[in-house]
User: What shape does this take?
Amino acid sequence: MRLPYLLLDIDGVLIPFPDDHGNTPATHARHDVVPTGRHADDPVTVWLNAADGLMLMDVIRTGLVTPVWCTSWRQDATTLIGPLLSLSPLPYVDLPRTKITTSHPHGYLWKRDHVDAWLGDEPAVWIDDDFTNLDHAWAAERTARGAATLLLQPDPYVGLRAEHLGEALEWAGQLPVTPACGSDGSRGAEAA
Assistant: This one.
C-alpha cells in the first residue's frame, strides 16, 4: 500500500466560520485574497492561523502522508491560501464547479463522489468539516474493502486542531505502506 493521502479542506477547517456574533478565533489573522475569476477590487476576506501552516509542515515532514488540497478553492488553495500559511505548493483534487444549493445534495458531501473516483483504491485521511453519517458509512465501506479511510471533522467555528493532525498521523503510522514512485501526490491533481 502506498502512502495515504491527506485530503485537506479549507473553509471550516483552515478558515473557521464566524460565530453568531460575526467573530472568528482570535488566533486567526485577516487576509484579503482574489480567487480565480474575481476582480481585484472585489477580494474575499479570509481568516488564517499561521500556526496551522507550521502544524501542517510538521505533518508533511513525517513522510507518513501525501498532502493534497480537497476544497472548492481548487488551484487557488495552492496559489492563494498555501502561501499565506507558508506552505509549499501542494497538488489539489480538481473538483468540478457544480451548481448546488446544499453541501449534501444526495444526503452526503457533494465532493465525495469526485473524491472516490480520484482516490480509486488508495488509502486516505480526509479532513473536512461537512461530513454526514452517509460519508462515515462510505469511509467504513472503503476500509472494509481494503482502501483504508479515515474522516476527521473539525468544528467549523473552531477549525483545525493539533489533535486532528495527531490522529491522522497515528492512523497513518499504523498502515502498511510502500512509498510510490514520485510521492508528490500528483495523481490526477495539478500542482500549481
Observations:
- The chain is about 30% helix and 15% strand.
- Strands lie at 5-8, 29-33, 44-48, 66-69, 91-93, 124-127, 149-152, 189-191.
- The longest strand covers residues 29-33.
